């Protein structure tokens, strides 16, 4: 549990995990693990907007797409460092991808965050779709054919380390922000917008801030995704991807960082874990079960796995007490 | 100019299909304040119900008005049953939970219908039975008025007028409006909100059923994911006109159908999906409650 408070410790834990997993698991599981990190980034960043700030965004895939395309295009066209410095260069491009997504987040957020609830959801959904259609119509990024030949980060341990660095950056950035006055501002917007405004908080500004930070990490997630798969096209970033991100946040519990991580891992692993069932029955029941689980979850445990608690709180509350 | 008139007719025909689906969204939103994402999949199931019933009854190669009418009635029944079941099993247990949960459930139901549709009906597209012959009724110059367009518009208008009558001239319509305004007070007045909500789902879903037969007739290729895009656009149409407002839904759907047809005709067909959302965003930013919606300021 200490790793949740100390970035260096968290990174070391993840590094050990990465190098340990390099032996013993096959390429298929490795790819799933890498996707799990992408999904963790997505759900943590969306949690900032949906969970902490209480604004319902359904356009996360759009920002992910911008990040993915930026990094993919840059690393195939703008490489400026020698081959040996590949990882450093990738790091710079991933930051660039995040910034590009953040700018897009600002441009989208500024007009749309004046809306509330379902309207905001539908407008962000709209922006997400518009970004996708725009990419579909841009010839220099391949249009519907997409971009291929995106360089990867080397072998699995390096790719996993690279992703872990971003996981740690994302986790602690959001964690520290949530424990600063900005974070209190975000929470106050979620709890009661009118009261927050009466207390002198510029609510629109708070929402835009949360949105921009969230878009930044969505862009980073997209960039990692592009480098892991080596190929992207606009249909990787549909409405379903945004829905997936929302599902992860809600499943983990709105406003729980560790909850989002756990949920992201579950959501990534579950469809793969159900694969044997498909071989058994001969029909693809995975997504049927997945969607059914989602409905049941909402009815039986509406607050998600952790509610707004962190895994350390849950630990303290239930495990320690019973011991 | 003649081209333009032709596009205008096509646009209106497309718009009336959107309107039928948009009405379902707007009614559910008006009464429950939730986006029923599963609505577009009820529509999909309706198309498949029509397909299978037509084959079962042996009328798939028997185009004519009676075939159309039979299929519409059957599909309405199937869709309303499905809508009722969805409401009872998925939405009613969540009546008092936060909005986001209801929304996620709706998305879950939608995914469930799509994927089980792929399992049950198969993922490959099917050819919808020919329920009606497409012929030119009359033409002015090169502008052609086709039987499909007339049917779509005709059925659409009948359905909308029926709905208008139901909402404003009958007792249950009054109850529906009462529940929409304030469920608590409505229940104090002796209206059973649960029953009214179930009824709303029946009406909305059966309108989706009508829409599915009309779309199947006009674009005879159906697959389990057919509802996604058309549902999204119909929903946008409903928001555009002011959600919760019947006239607004029709107006928004017409704007949507016309502008889509014009964009495909004069710009590029790849932009047609972005256009819907583009219009929506512009409208919502300048008129947050939609074209005909009433904007209410939140008071403390």
TrEMBL record, chain A:
Principal location listed in the UniProt entry: membrane
Subcellular localization, as worded in the UniProt entry: Cell membrane
Gene Ontology CC terms, in alphabetical order: plasma membrane
CDD domains: TM_PBP1_LivM_like
Recorded topology in the membrane: Multi-pass membrane protein
Keyword Protease: no
Transmembrane segments: 30-49, 56-75, 87-107, 119-138, 158-178, 210-233, 245-271, 283-300
Lineage: Bacteria, Pseudomonadati, Bdellovibrionota, Bdellovibrionia, Bdellovibrionales
Protein name per its UniProtKB record: Branched-chain amino acid ABC transporter, permease protein
Alphabetical UniProt keywords: Cell membrane, Membrane, Transmembrane, Transmembrane helix
Pfam families documented for this protein: BPD_transp_2
A GO molecular-function annotation: branched-chain amino acid transmembrane transporter activity
The species this protein was found in: Bdellovibrio bacteriovorus str. Tiberius
UniProtKB/TrEMBL annotation, chain B:
InterPro entries xrefs: ABC_transp_permease (IPR001851), BCAA_transport_permease (IPR052157)
Gene Ontology terms: cellular component: plasma membrane
Compartments, as annotated in UniProt: Cell membrane
Principal location: membrane
An example Gene Ontology molecular-function term: L-phenylalanine transmembrane transporter activity
Pfam families: BPD_transp_2
Membrane-traversing stretches: 12-30, 42-59, 65-86, 98-115, 135-163, 197-215, 235-255, 275-293
Positions in coiled-coil regions: none
Top-level division of the source organism's lineage: Bacteria
GO biological process: D-alanine transmembrane transport; L-alanine transport; L-isoleucine import across plasma membrane
Membrane topology: Multi-pass membrane protein
Record key words, sorted: Amino-acid transport, Cell inner membrane, Cell membrane, Membrane, Transmembrane, Transmembrane helix, Transport
Family the UniProt entry places it in: Belongs to the binding-protein-dependent transport system permease family. LivHM subfamily.
Name of the featured protein: Branched-chain amino acid ABC transporter, permease protein
Organism encoding this protein: Bdellovibrio bacteriovorus str. Tiberius
């Amino acid at each position: 549990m200490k790793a949740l408070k100390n970035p260096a410790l968290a990174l070391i834990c993840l590094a050990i995990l990465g190098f340990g997993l390099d032996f013993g698991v096959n390429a298929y599981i490795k790819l799933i693990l890498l996707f799990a990190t992408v999904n963790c980034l997505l759900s943590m960043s969306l949690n900032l907007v949906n969970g902490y700030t209480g604004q319902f965004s359904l356009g996360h895939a759009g920002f992910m797409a911008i990040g993915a395309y930026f990094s993919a295009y840059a690393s195939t066209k703008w490489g400026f460092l020698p081959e040996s410095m590949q990882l450093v260069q990738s790091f710079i491009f991933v930051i660039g991808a995040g910034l590009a997504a953040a700018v897009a987040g600002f441009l989208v957020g500024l007009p749309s965050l004046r809306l509330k609830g379902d309207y905001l959801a539908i407008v962000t959904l709209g922006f997400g779709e518009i970004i996708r259609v725009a990419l579909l119509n841009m010839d220099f990024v391949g249009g519907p054919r997409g971009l291929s030949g995106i360089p990867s980060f080397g072998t699995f341990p390096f790719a996993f380390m690279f992703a872990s660095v971003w996981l740690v950056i994302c986790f602690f950035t959001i964690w520290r922000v949530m424990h600063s006055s900005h974070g209190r501002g975000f929470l106050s917007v979620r709890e009661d917008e009118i009261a927050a405004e009466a207390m002198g908080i510029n609510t629109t500004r708070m929402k835009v801030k949360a949105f921009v930070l969230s878009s930044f990490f969505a862009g980073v997630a997209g960039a990692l995704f592009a480098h892991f798969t080596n190929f992207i096209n606009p249909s990787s970033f549909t409405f379903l991807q945004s829905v997936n991100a929302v599902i992860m946040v809600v499943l983990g519990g709105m406003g729980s960082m560790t909850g989002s991580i756990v949920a992201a891992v579950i959501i990534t692993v579950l469809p793969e874990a159900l694969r044997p069932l498909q071989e058994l029955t001969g029909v693809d029941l995975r997504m049927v079960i997945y969607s059914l689980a989602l409905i049941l979850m909402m009815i039986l445990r509406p607050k998600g796995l952790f509610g707004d608690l962190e895994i350390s709180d849950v630990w303290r509350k239930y495990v320690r007490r019973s011991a | 100019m003649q081209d333009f008139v032709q596009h205008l007719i096509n646009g209106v025909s497309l718009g009336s299909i959107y309107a039928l689906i948009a009405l379902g969204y707007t009614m559910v939103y008006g009464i429950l304040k939730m986006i029923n994402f599963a609505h577009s999949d009820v529509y999909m199931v309706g198309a498949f119900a029509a397909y299978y019933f037509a084959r079962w009854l042996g009328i798939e190669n028997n185009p004519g008005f009676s075939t159309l009418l039979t299929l519409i009635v059957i599909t309405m029944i199937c869709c309303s049953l499905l809508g009722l079941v969805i409401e009872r099993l998925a939405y009613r247990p969540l009546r008092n939970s936060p909005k986001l949960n209801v929304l996620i459930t709706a998305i879950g139901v939608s995914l469930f219908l799509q994927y089980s549709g792929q399992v049950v009906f198969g993922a490959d597209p099917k050819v919808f039975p020919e329920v009606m012959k497409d012929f030119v009724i009359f033409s002015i110059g090169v502008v052609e008025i086709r039987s499909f367009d007339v049917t779509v518009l005709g059925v659409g208008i009948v359905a909308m007028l029926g709905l208008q009558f139901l909402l404003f001239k009958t007792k249950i319509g009054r109850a529906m409006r009462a529940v929409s305004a304030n469920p608590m007070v409505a229940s104090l007045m002796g209206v059973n909100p649960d029953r009214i909500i179930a009824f709303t789902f029946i009406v909305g879903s059966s309108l989706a059923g009508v829409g599915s037969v009309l779309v199947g007739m006009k674009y005879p290729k159906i697959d389990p994911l057919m509802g996604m895009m058309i549902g999204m656009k119909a929903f946008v149409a409903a928001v555009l006109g002011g959600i919760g407002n019947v006239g607004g839904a029709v107006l928004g759907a017409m704007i949507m159908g016309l502008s889509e047809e014009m964009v495909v005709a004069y710009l590029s067909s790849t932009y047609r999906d972005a256009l819907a959302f583009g219009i929506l965003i512009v409208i919502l930013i300048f008129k947050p409650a939609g074209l005909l919606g009433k904007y209410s300021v939140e008071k403390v």
